[in-house]
Amino acid sequence: MTTILLNALSILLVLFLALLLKKIGLLRQEDGALTSKLVVYLTLPATILIGVNHTKLSGIFFILMFMGLFSNLFLVFLGKFIGRKASVEERGLYMFDLSGYNIGNFSIPFVSSFFPAAIPFLAMFDMGNSLMVTGTTQAIVELSSGRKKHGFILQEIFGVLFRNPPFVVYIFMFILAIFGLSFPDDWLILIRPLANANTLLSIFTIGLFMEFRLPKGKLKLLLKILTWRYLLAFILASLVYFFAPFPAIIKEVLLLIFFVRCPFCT
């Protein structure tokens, strides 16, 4: 527990440092675009590759992948039900912000700093989660609102997925695991410095993009959405913790996932 608290404190320190440097003008929010690219194209893929190397597939990994997909679907349609009496825009916000999990930019950096053995489980859940947050959720929201800008086009959704380096690494390592293959540890020494930088760059990027401004009159709506999101997270976490026949490490991973920030919230 002490290790977890110290790592959480170190992450808050990095977040505060990013906010401070932005406040004094040494860095700007626009600089987050560069650090974000470094994370997406270099440090996060390296972290995933090292973290899931030597993984031996079992049934629990496929369960986690489907949980990542279907928990999103459930929450998207629950958001539609909760916001059924609201305006089209507000109902869309409920659907977006009650679903989705920010695993790549938050959960993996946090866990990799003190418990890298959990990364394979996070990765499998994120494979299902990624199918939703990269376009499927948006397509469902558009179709349900009657404002069909793009529609449900699988080709576009998979196009976005396979232009996403972390997802490509997921798929590549998943295929290797199916055939019982992995990289020799000595080879991965070359990319370990990139993986070691992932937590710092990921959290720093969040800090650079973080804004505390809110459109006038939207505070009440924000509080409603956050209350629903974390109430539902508490319910899902309780169901998993008390009733799911999973090992302790899986339960801990799922509890962390349920309470992470929403990838659509800005």
From TrEMBL:
Keywords: Membrane, Transmembrane, Transmembrane helix, Transport. The keyword Transmembrane applies. This is Permease. The chain crosses the membrane at residues 32-52, 59-83, 103-125, 167-183, 189-209, 230-250.
